[in-house]
Amino acid sequence: DSGVTQTPKHLITATGQRVTLRCSPRSGDLSVYWYQQSLDQGLQFLIQYYNGEERAKGNILERFSAQQFPDLHSELNLSSLELGDSALYFCASSVRTSGSEQFFGPGTRLTVL
Amino acid sequence: GDSVTQMEGPVTLSEEAFLTINCTYTATGYPSLFWYVQYPGEGLQLLLKATKADDKGSNKGFEATYRKETTSFHLEKGSVQVSDSAVYFCALGNQAGTALIFGKGTTLSVSS
What we know:
The complex is a heterodimer of chains A (about 110) and B (about 110). By secondary structure, chain A is an all-beta fold. Chain A has strands spanning about 5, 10-15, 20-25, 30-40, 40-50, 55, 65-70, 75-80, 85-95, 105, 110. Chain B is built from no helices and 12 strands. In chain B, the strands form 3 sheets. In chain B, strands 2, 5, 6, 10, 11 and 12 form a 6-stranded mixed sheet that branches. In chain B, strand 10 (about 85-95) and strand 11 (about 100) form a beta hairpin.
């Protein structure tokens, strides 16, 4: 158990809908990262937050957004969902903003029908 | 940009066989290198890491050495077990030290 929690574990929804994925980092970790794992693209970095502020952006679509709250949990919002958004979404956390180990949560499997 | 290339799988071995999973990288500077493992239905777990050239990371019988001259970080284990069956990902820390850049993953299947 990494100490990173993600909810829900599974999410099934329809095209055009909007969903929210939630992540709670390990106790004491200030950085939260979001990754997408799909069969065709592999594991891709989406976005990073550190202590409530956005720090780095990867291949995140404009339909997707994230935030980190004062209690350090983070939410990833996915809107106008398409079939291709079906994937496993991982959250990871680390102590510092860069250079430290990232600990991964169990992931949320999103299926868009 | 930075990238990681690892050998395609699946790799199928018998118990107690020797394991090598090749990983090479392209990056500017001197990134940190990692191996993560993903067991079925679970998230990624850090297996080992190395932060500078010639460093050897090791954990649970697995080893990998940071080779700057060949830009490689191959994963090895002398004697695999059925419980090692999983997907193994090689990764590097990007130049800013924020995101991890992953290889495509190598599936290892060990039979008794």
